[in-house]
Amino acid sequence: MPGxxxxxxxxxxYEGTNVVALADRRTNDPDVVLLWARxxxxxxxxxxxxxxxxxxxxxxxxxxxxxxxxxxxxxxDD
Length: 78
What we know:
Shape: globular
Strand order of the largest sheet: 1-2-3-4-5
Structural class: mainly beta
């Protein structure tokens, strides 16, 4: 996963990367973010489990990116 996230900016850029956060959702656990890579044009979902600080990346396609963001565990094994 990319580096520090700027949570208050609705379209935030991860520092030192060409990855843009399009949406984020903070819950009790986990945190979910929808990312877009400028270089490739590919979206992906990111999960962070707060208690363990483990992260996961879920590849997405433009057509299913909103669904990956809303239901990341349904797409975790795709």
